[in-house]
């Protein structure tokens, strides 16, 4: 087993850290580039702006700023304000993790039709999450002339580990709430339910795995480099899957409401009733169910309203 604190091992780990972060910068820049069309449509008014998109944009662009800051800190050969850039990088990276969880929380609240208990529960988790995130910004760094680079001198790794552990618990809660509502209570096999359930699965497993790895390495504390090696991958993974889930739902909503039926029927004129729904036969037509949001253009699924539609038999 190597001596993790030896100068040779620290040199190897430092080289790995630099190469990994440059690869991550390229990965996230590519993800941002291929999905910028969605951002542009919102900014130019082609897609309607809704207030939850504030957190979507903050998530994407704070992390983009953090990756730019990391690149500047790693590649600078002249003295820079290390304290300022490290503080910004720490806050932006941690905030990206918090915003990723928040984006999925807002969607979960909508799936639960603005249920008051769910709103209070998730609001408490969000506040606790951000209390940890803001405390983690307290660190100290300075420029070291002999190394010609920035050196981090003071940081609270245990608090950072607690933040990632909290994030894992938060992700688990969001996943279970989504799975229960979409997989148990909503007994349909429609495309909307499948998409939202699968997005939830993908988000949970990807985010949980990367946050778990980051947390483990922070707790075992092999050396000053390995303790933070997997923080950036965790932030990037969480952000990518959370923002993709937002875009998937927005694009799906643009297709209009989804219809469910247990018997054959043909399209024709139909009327919508906001009464007791059900799959029953009616004189002159077949009653079917359709799920549609209050606002299908919202990036988060609105409280699902179950309508009954009478479709004339032709």
UniProtKB/TrEMBL annotation:
Keywords: Membrane, Transmembrane, Transmembrane helix. The keyword Transmembrane helix applies. It comes from the Eukaryota. The chain crosses the membrane at residues 53-74, 120-139, 159-180, 201-220, 226-246. This is Transmembrane protein.
């Amino acid at each position: 087993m190597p001596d993790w604190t030896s100068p040779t091992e620290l040199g190897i780990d430092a080289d790995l850290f630099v190469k990994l972060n440059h690869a991550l910068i390229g990965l996230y820049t590519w993800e941002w580039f291929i999905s910028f069309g969605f951002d542009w449509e919102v900014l130019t008014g082609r897609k309607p702006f809704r207030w939850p998109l504030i957190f979507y944009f903050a998530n994407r662009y704070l992390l983009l700023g953090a990756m730019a800051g990391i690149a500047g800190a790693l590649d600078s050969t002249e003295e820079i304000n290390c304290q300022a850039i490290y503080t910004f990088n720490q806050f932006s990276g941690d905030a990206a993790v918090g915003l990723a969880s928040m984006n999925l929380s807002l969607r979960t609240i909508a799936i639960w039709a603005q249920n008051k208990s769910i709103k209070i529960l998730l609001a408490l988790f969000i506040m606790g999450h951000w209390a940890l995130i803001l405390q983690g910004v307290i660190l100290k760094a300075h420029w070291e002339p002999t190394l010609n680079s920035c050196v981090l001198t003071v940081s609270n790794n245990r608090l950072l580990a607690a933040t990632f552990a909290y994030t894992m618990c938060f992700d688990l809660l969001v996943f279970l709430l989504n799975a229960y509502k979409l997989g148990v209570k909503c007994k349909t096999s429609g495309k909307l339910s499948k998409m939202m359930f699968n997005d939830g699965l993908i988000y949970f497993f990807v985010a949980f795995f990367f946050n778990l790895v980051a947390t483990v390495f922070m707790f075992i504390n092999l050396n000053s480099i390995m303790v933070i090696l997997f923080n950036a991958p965790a932030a990037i993974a969480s952000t990518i899957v959370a923002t993709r889930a937002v875009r998937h739902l927005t694009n799906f909503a643009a297709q209009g409401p989804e219809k469910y039926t247990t018997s054959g029927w043909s399209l024709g004129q139909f009327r919508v009733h906001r009464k007791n729904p059900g799959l029953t036969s009616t004189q002159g037509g077949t009653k079917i169910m359709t799920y549609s949001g209050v606002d299908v253009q919202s990036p988060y699924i609105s409280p699902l309203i179950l309508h009954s539609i009478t479709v004339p038999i032709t």
